[in-house]
Design brief:
The chain is an alpha+beta fold. It is built from 14 helices and 10 strands. It has one domain (about 5-305): DD-peptidase/beta-lactamase superfamily (Beta-lactamase). The structure holds glutamic acid.
Amino acid sequence: MRDIKYQQILDEIKGRVEPLYGRGQVADYIPELRKVKPHQFAMCLTCVNDKAQYSTGCAEKPFSIQSISKVFALILAASKIGERVYQRVGIEPSGDPFNSLVQLEHEQGFPRNPLINAGALVVSDILISCLDDPKTQLLDFVRRLANNSKINFDASVTDSEKKTGFRNYAMAYFLKSFERIENCVDDVLDLYFHQCSLSMSCSDLSYAFLVLANRGVIMHSGDKILTPSQSKRINSIMQTCGFYDQAGEFTFRVGLPGKSGVGGGIAAIKPDEFSIAVWSPELNKHGNSVLGMHALEHFTTATGKSIF
Ligand code: GLU
Protein backbone atom coordinates (compact mmCIF):
# COMPACT_ATOMS: atom_id res chain seq x y z
CA MET A 1 0.00 0.00 0.00
CA ARG A 2 1.26 3.46 -0.80
CA ASP A 3 2.85 5.41 2.03
CA ILE A 4 0.53 8.15 3.12
CA LYS A 5 2.24 11.50 3.70
CA TYR A 6 0.25 12.44 6.79
CA GLN A 7 2.26 15.52 7.72
CA GLN A 8 1.91 17.00 4.27
CA ILE A 9 -1.82 16.23 4.21
CA LEU A 10 -2.43 17.88 7.58
CA ASP A 11 -0.50 21.00 6.55
CA GLU A 12 -2.46 21.18 3.30
CA ILE A 13 -5.73 20.82 5.19
CA LYS A 14 -4.81 23.74 7.45
CA GLY A 15 -4.27 25.91 4.38
CA ARG A 16 -7.59 24.82 2.89
CA VAL A 17 -9.75 25.41 5.95
CA GLU A 18 -8.30 28.67 7.27
CA PRO A 19 -10.18 30.74 4.67
CA LEU A 20 -13.38 29.49 6.38
CA TYR A 21 -12.76 31.59 9.50
CA GLY A 22 -15.77 33.76 10.22
CA ARG A 23 -18.37 31.25 8.94
CA GLY A 24 -19.41 30.15 12.42
CA GLN A 25 -19.74 31.53 15.92
CA VAL A 26 -17.97 30.77 19.16
CA ALA A 27 -20.38 29.23 21.71
CA ASP A 28 -21.73 32.07 23.80
CA TYR A 29 -24.25 30.43 26.12
CA ILE A 30 -21.41 29.55 28.50
CA PRO A 31 -19.93 32.99 29.31
CA GLU A 32 -16.40 31.72 29.76
CA LEU A 33 -16.34 30.16 26.27
CA ARG A 34 -17.29 33.51 24.74
CA LYS A 35 -13.79 34.78 25.62
CA VAL A 36 -12.00 32.29 23.35
CA LYS A 37 -10.23 33.81 20.34
CA PRO A 38 -12.26 32.55 17.35
CA HIS A 39 -9.65 32.19 14.61
CA GLN A 40 -7.64 29.25 15.85
CA PHE A 41 -7.07 25.84 14.33
CA ALA A 42 -5.29 22.67 15.39
CA MET A 43 -5.26 19.07 14.27
CA CYS A 44 -3.41 16.02 15.54
CA LEU A 45 -3.30 12.43 14.29
CA THR A 46 -1.95 9.47 16.27
CA CYS A 47 -1.40 6.13 14.56
CA VAL A 48 -2.06 2.80 16.25
CA ASN A 49 0.72 0.74 14.69
CA ASP A 50 3.70 2.94 15.61
CA LYS A 51 2.13 5.62 17.87
CA ALA A 52 3.51 8.25 15.48
CA GLN A 53 1.89 11.66 15.93
CA TYR A 54 1.43 14.24 13.19
CA SER A 55 0.05 17.67 13.90
CA THR A 56 -0.60 21.09 12.46
CA GLY A 57 -1.64 24.43 14.00
CA CYS A 58 -1.68 24.94 17.76
CA ALA A 59 -1.97 21.23 18.61
CA GLU A 60 -0.46 21.60 22.09
CA LYS A 61 -2.85 24.37 23.15
CA PRO A 62 -5.46 23.24 25.70
CA PHE A 63 -9.12 24.12 25.12
CA SER A 64 -12.41 23.27 26.78
CA ILE A 65 -13.36 19.78 25.58
CA GLN A 66 -16.99 20.11 26.77
CA SER A 67 -19.12 17.23 25.45
CA ILE A 68 -16.15 15.21 24.23
CA SER A 69 -15.77 14.40 27.93
CA LYS A 70 -19.00 12.38 27.70
CA VAL A 71 -17.01 9.70 25.92
CA PHE A 72 -14.45 9.47 28.73
CA ALA A 73 -17.19 9.23 31.35
CA LEU A 74 -18.89 6.52 29.28
CA ILE A 75 -15.66 4.51 28.89
CA LEU A 76 -15.09 4.70 32.64
CA ALA A 77 -18.68 3.69 33.43
CA ALA A 78 -18.58 0.79 30.95
CA SER A 79 -15.27 -0.37 32.41
CA LYS A 80 -16.89 -0.45 35.87
CA ILE A 81 -20.37 -1.83 35.28
CA GLY A 82 -20.22 -3.22 31.74
CA GLU A 83 -23.46 -3.76 29.83
CA ARG A 84 -25.56 -2.49 32.73
CA VAL A 85 -24.81 1.06 31.51
CA TYR A 86 -27.24 0.41 28.67
CA GLN A 87 -30.04 -0.40 31.07
CA ARG A 88 -29.75 3.19 32.31
CA VAL A 89 -29.26 5.01 28.96
CA GLY A 90 -30.38 4.16 25.43
CA ILE A 91 -28.39 3.72 22.24
CA GLU A 92 -30.51 5.57 19.70
CA PRO A 93 -29.77 8.92 18.08
CA SER A 94 -32.01 11.63 19.43
CA GLY A 95 -32.43 13.86 16.37
CA ASP A 96 -32.95 16.68 18.88
CA PRO A 97 -30.53 19.29 20.23
CA PHE A 98 -28.16 17.98 22.89
CA ASN A 99 -29.95 19.75 25.72
CA SER A 100 -33.54 19.10 24.69
CA LEU A 101 -36.10 18.34 27.40
CA VAL A 102 -39.00 17.47 25.11
CA GLN A 103 -38.04 13.91 24.26
CA LEU A 104 -37.42 13.07 27.91
CA GLU A 105 -40.99 13.93 28.81
CA HIS A 106 -42.34 11.57 26.13
CA GLU A 107 -39.94 8.78 27.07
CA GLN A 108 -40.42 8.81 30.86
CA GLY A 109 -37.00 10.27 31.50
CA PHE A 110 -35.07 7.46 29.79
CA PRO A 111 -32.25 9.25 27.90
CA ARG A 112 -31.94 8.31 24.24
CA ASN A 113 -28.16 7.86 24.46
CA PRO A 114 -25.16 8.63 26.71
CA LEU A 115 -23.83 11.43 24.50
CA ILE A 116 -26.69 13.89 24.93
CA ASN A 117 -26.84 15.86 28.15
CA ALA A 118 -29.60 13.78 29.73
CA GLY A 119 -27.66 10.59 29.10
CA ALA A 120 -24.40 12.11 30.31
CA LEU A 121 -26.09 13.17 33.56
CA VAL A 122 -27.20 9.58 34.11
CA VAL A 123 -23.65 8.39 33.37
CA SER A 124 -22.38 10.89 35.99
CA ASP A 125 -24.88 9.36 38.40
CA ILE A 126 -23.53 5.87 37.61
CA LEU A 127 -19.97 7.05 38.31
CA ILE A 128 -21.00 8.56 41.62
CA SER A 129 -22.61 5.26 42.62
CA CYS A 130 -19.59 3.14 41.75
CA LEU A 131 -16.57 5.32 42.59
CA ASP A 132 -15.34 6.62 45.98
CA ASP A 133 -14.12 9.95 44.64
CA PRO A 134 -15.61 10.28 41.14
CA LYS A 135 -14.18 13.70 40.25
CA THR A 136 -10.60 12.75 41.10
CA GLN A 137 -10.95 9.28 39.62
CA LEU A 138 -12.37 10.60 36.36
CA LEU A 139 -9.55 13.14 36.11
CA ASP A 140 -6.95 10.47 36.84
CA PHE A 141 -8.55 8.21 34.26
CA VAL A 142 -8.37 10.87 31.54
CA ARG A 143 -4.75 11.66 32.47
CA ARG A 144 -3.96 7.97 32.21
CA LEU A 145 -5.57 7.63 28.77
CA ALA A 146 -3.79 10.72 27.48
CA ASN A 147 -0.52 9.89 29.25
CA ASN A 148 -0.40 13.45 30.55
CA SER A 149 -0.56 14.15 34.29
CA LYS A 150 -0.95 17.90 33.73
CA ILE A 151 -4.49 17.70 32.35
CA ASN A 152 -6.94 19.46 34.63
CA PHE A 153 -10.40 20.94 35.05
CA ASP A 154 -10.64 24.62 34.18
CA ALA A 155 -12.21 26.12 37.29
CA SER A 156 -13.39 29.27 35.52
CA VAL A 157 -15.33 27.17 32.99
CA THR A 158 -16.80 24.97 35.75
CA ASP A 159 -17.96 28.07 37.64
CA SER A 160 -19.31 29.68 34.51
CA GLU A 161 -21.48 26.63 33.78
CA LYS A 162 -22.55 26.36 37.40
CA LYS A 163 -23.80 29.93 37.27
CA THR A 164 -25.59 29.67 33.93
CA GLY A 165 -26.37 26.01 33.18
CA PHE A 166 -30.04 26.35 34.07
CA ARG A 167 -31.18 23.88 31.43
CA ASN A 168 -28.85 21.25 32.86
CA TYR A 169 -30.26 21.89 36.34
CA ALA A 170 -33.76 21.53 34.94
CA MET A 171 -32.81 18.33 33.16
CA ALA A 172 -31.17 16.76 36.20
CA TYR A 173 -34.20 17.46 38.40
CA PHE A 174 -36.48 16.23 35.64
CA LEU A 175 -34.49 12.96 35.48
CA LYS A 176 -34.69 12.71 39.26
CA SER A 177 -38.47 13.09 39.09
CA PHE A 178 -38.54 9.97 36.89
CA GLU A 179 -36.22 8.22 39.37
CA ARG A 180 -33.50 7.95 36.72
CA ILE A 181 -30.93 9.48 39.09
CA GLU A 182 -30.00 7.68 42.30
CA ASN A 183 -27.73 10.25 43.94
CA CYS A 184 -28.07 13.83 45.06
CA VAL A 185 -28.78 16.04 42.02
CA ASP A 186 -26.21 18.64 43.11
CA ASP A 187 -23.47 15.98 43.17
CA VAL A 188 -24.44 14.75 39.72
CA LEU A 189 -24.35 18.27 38.30
CA ASP A 190 -21.07 19.04 40.03
CA LEU A 191 -19.41 16.02 38.40
CA TYR A 192 -21.00 16.80 35.03
CA PHE A 193 -19.89 20.46 35.05
CA HIS A 194 -16.39 19.44 36.05
CA GLN A 195 -16.01 16.85 33.31
CA CYS A 196 -17.21 19.35 30.69
CA SER A 197 -14.59 21.83 31.88
CA LEU A 198 -11.67 19.46 31.23
CA SER A 199 -9.00 21.33 29.37
CA MET A 200 -7.02 19.32 26.81
CA SER A 201 -5.06 19.90 23.63
CA CYS A 202 -5.58 18.15 20.29
CA SER A 203 -2.45 16.18 21.02
CA ASP A 204 -3.91 15.01 24.38
CA LEU A 205 -7.28 14.17 22.87
CA SER A 206 -5.85 12.28 19.97
CA TYR A 207 -3.72 10.22 22.33
CA ALA A 208 -6.57 9.59 24.77
CA PHE A 209 -8.96 8.41 22.04
CA LEU A 210 -6.42 5.87 20.86
CA VAL A 211 -7.90 3.42 23.37
CA LEU A 212 -11.05 3.26 21.21
CA ALA A 213 -8.99 2.73 18.04
CA ASN A 214 -7.07 -0.01 19.83
CA ARG A 215 -10.04 -2.16 20.87
CA GLY A 216 -10.08 -0.99 24.46
CA VAL A 217 -6.38 -1.29 25.30
CA ILE A 218 -4.27 1.72 26.31
CA MET A 219 -1.43 1.75 23.79
CA HIS A 220 1.41 3.03 25.95
CA SER A 221 0.72 0.86 29.00
CA GLY A 222 -1.00 -2.19 27.51
CA ASP A 223 -3.76 -1.83 30.16
CA LYS A 224 -7.04 -3.40 29.08
CA ILE A 225 -9.79 -0.88 29.85
CA LEU A 226 -12.63 -2.28 27.76
CA THR A 227 -13.28 -5.56 26.03
CA PRO A 228 -13.21 -5.34 22.21
CA SER A 229 -16.99 -5.63 22.27
CA GLN A 230 -17.40 -2.77 24.77
CA SER A 231 -15.09 -0.64 22.67
CA LYS A 232 -17.07 -1.47 19.53
CA ARG A 233 -20.29 -0.44 21.27
CA ILE A 234 -18.91 2.95 22.26
CA ASN A 235 -17.60 3.55 18.74
CA SER A 236 -20.97 2.70 17.26
CA ILE A 237 -22.73 5.09 19.65
CA MET A 238 -20.27 7.82 18.64
CA GLN A 239 -21.04 7.13 14.99
CA THR A 240 -24.79 7.49 15.38
CA CYS A 241 -25.00 9.98 18.27
CA GLY A 242 -21.69 11.88 18.46
CA PHE A 243 -22.54 15.04 16.54
CA TYR A 244 -25.76 16.42 17.99
CA ASP A 245 -28.44 16.49 15.31
CA GLN A 246 -25.82 16.47 12.56
CA ALA A 247 -24.61 12.88 13.09
CA GLY A 248 -26.00 11.80 9.72
CA GLU A 249 -24.19 14.56 7.87
CA PHE A 250 -20.94 13.88 9.74
CA THR A 251 -21.18 10.21 8.77
CA PHE A 252 -21.99 11.19 5.18
CA ARG A 253 -19.13 13.67 4.83
CA VAL A 254 -16.45 12.25 7.13
CA GLY A 255 -17.34 8.64 7.83
CA LEU A 256 -15.61 8.14 11.18
CA PRO A 257 -17.04 7.56 14.66
CA GLY A 258 -16.32 10.54 16.89
CA LYS A 259 -17.59 13.15 19.29
CA SER A 260 -17.71 16.91 19.16
CA GLY A 261 -18.04 19.54 21.86
CA VAL A 262 -19.21 23.15 21.94
CA GLY A 263 -15.65 24.22 22.76
CA GLY A 264 -15.00 23.54 19.06
CA GLY A 265 -13.18 20.23 19.45
CA ILE A 266 -13.84 16.97 17.60
CA ALA A 267 -12.17 13.63 18.28
CA ALA A 268 -12.62 10.66 15.95
CA ILE A 269 -11.11 7.26 15.38
CA LYS A 270 -10.64 4.55 12.78
CA PRO A 271 -10.46 1.14 14.48
CA ASP A 272 -6.99 -0.44 14.37
CA GLU A 273 -5.56 2.55 12.53
CA PHE A 274 -5.64 5.96 14.18
CA SER A 275 -7.32 8.56 16.31
CA ILE A 276 -7.55 12.16 15.22
CA ALA A 277 -8.48 15.37 17.02
CA VAL A 278 -9.24 18.76 15.58
CA TRP A 279 -10.10 22.08 17.19
CA SER A 280 -11.40 25.38 15.95
CA PRO A 281 -13.82 27.33 18.16
CA GLU A 282 -16.29 28.70 15.62
CA LEU A 283 -19.39 26.47 15.50
CA ASN A 284 -22.09 25.88 12.93
CA LYS A 285 -25.76 26.05 13.88
CA HIS A 286 -25.72 22.45 15.12
CA GLY A 287 -22.88 23.14 17.58
CA ASN A 288 -20.11 21.46 15.56
CA SER A 289 -16.84 23.16 14.65
CA VAL A 290 -17.04 24.60 11.12
CA LEU A 291 -13.35 24.20 10.33
CA GLY A 292 -13.18 20.94 12.26
CA MET A 293 -15.81 19.24 10.11
CA HIS A 294 -14.25 20.49 6.88
CA ALA A 295 -10.80 19.42 8.03
CA LEU A 296 -11.93 15.89 8.83
CA GLU A 297 -13.82 15.65 5.55
CA HIS A 298 -10.65 16.64 3.68
CA PHE A 299 -8.65 14.16 5.74
CA THR A 300 -10.79 11.13 4.95
CA THR A 301 -11.05 12.17 1.31
CA ALA A 302 -7.30 12.69 0.91
CA THR A 303 -6.31 9.49 2.70
CA GLY A 304 -9.26 7.27 1.74
CA LYS A 305 -9.44 6.36 5.42
CA SER A 306 -13.04 6.48 6.49
CA ILE A 307 -14.69 3.37 7.90
CA PHE A 308 -16.94 3.09 4.85
N1 GLU B 1 -21.27 21.76 29.13
C1 GLU B 1 -22.08 21.90 27.96
C2 GLU B 1 -23.54 21.83 28.33
O1 GLU B 1 -23.90 21.02 29.13
C3 GLU B 1 -21.71 20.80 27.01
C4 GLU B 1 -22.29 21.06 25.69
C5 GLU B 1 -21.63 20.36 24.57
O2 GLU B 1 -20.41 20.44 24.36
O3 GLU B 1 -22.37 19.70 23.85
O4 GLU B 1 -24.34 22.58 27.87
